[in-house]
Amino acid sequence: MGTVTPLPIGRPGQVGFDRLELTRILDLYGRMVAAGHWRDYAIQFDDEAAVFAAFRRAAERPEFRIEKRPALRNRQGMWALVGEHGAVLKRGHELGPVLAPVERRLMKLVD
Question: InterPro entries of this UniProt entry (predicted)?
Fold first, then answer.
């Protein structure tokens, strides 16, 4: 008999979100939708980064982008929160603290 070779899932070297990361991001997205602030999202997977973009309206630029760049893991941290105009608002090694500014904004929207 021949050798069984597993098929790769996705492109080789493609960066993605694992289940816990995506659950955390989508939980935040769902709460922002419930608060009436976000209405659409997009996900992009590249060889260098995985990006989750949240939009107020589909025709606009994303209000926030959550980027995962493993190449920066040993430097500033692989997670980044990028604002609407492209400025990095927060960078870190863990997802929770990077999402904190959006969480605080959600608390202000709900109050």
Answer: DUF2794
